[in-house]
């Protein structure tokens, strides 16, 4: 069974939903506070998947995800590099994407960041997305997604050195953040580290669709759009 570590920190608030999504896909999940891993980095050896869930890590002080990103970069870089080199997967959702980007886990010299929405306030809505032609393990077999966003600092700004790192885009006209090139998610060069702003864990069951009662029962899908992402993680290790 695939062992999944969901890394918590003060302000994390999407860990339970994310754990449930992985469990429904067939994974074995453990939720650990960042302090446990800082005390004992060798804990990472017990897992095949590391997930940084959504929320407001350390209250988003300084900037979204920055404090947790610095902890990973300054105190766990060696352990995380070994984790990546072993062929394991790393996923960052929402705040987790901000952490991955600012910690260098998506690329050390990546000239990009996630900054404030043009509105300057927290935004939540459902968006249409399309998967790009990339090496991203998490999006295998996925062409399009309909998922919710919930963030204040989700606008992607910067340029990618390798266009194949762009894994997920907002459908034109459905980009609420004004993200550059409609970018909603990127992966590293291996396709095994993936960060995205939308929340797939919030749409794994058909009843989570905002208009699910208007869909005829016989036309409702078995799973929500986000479920395939978690299935892909489990299937990768089979």
Structural summary, described in words:
With 238 residues, this protein is of the alpha/beta class. The chain has a single domain (3-236), classed as Rossmann fold. The chain is 23% helix and 25% strand. It has six helices and eleven strands. It has helices at residues 15-24, 34-39, 66-75, 77-85, 95-103, 227-236, and strands at residues 3-8, 28-33, 49-52, 89-93, 112-115, 123-131, 144-151, 155-158, 166-170, 183-187, 193-196. The strands form two sheets. The protein has a nine-stranded mixed sheet with strand order 2-1-3-4-11-10-9-6-7. The chain has a two-stranded antiparallel ribbon with strand order 5-8. The radius of gyration is 17 Å and the shape is globular. The termini are close together. The model has no long low-confidence stretch (mean pLDDT 95).
What descriptive keywords fit this protein?
23% helix; Rossmann fold; nine-stranded mixed sheet; 11 strands; two-stranded antiparallel sheet; 25% strand; alpha/beta
Write the layout of secondary structure elements.
Layout lengths: L2 E6 L6 H10 L3 E6 H6 L9 E4 L13 H10 L1 H9 L3 E5 L1 H9 L8 E4 L7 E9 L12 E8 L3 E4 L7 E5 L12 E5 L5 E4 L30 H10 L2
Parallel strand pairs: 1-2, 1-3, 3-4, 4-11
Antiparallel strand pairs: 5-8, 6-7, 6-9, 9-10, 10-11
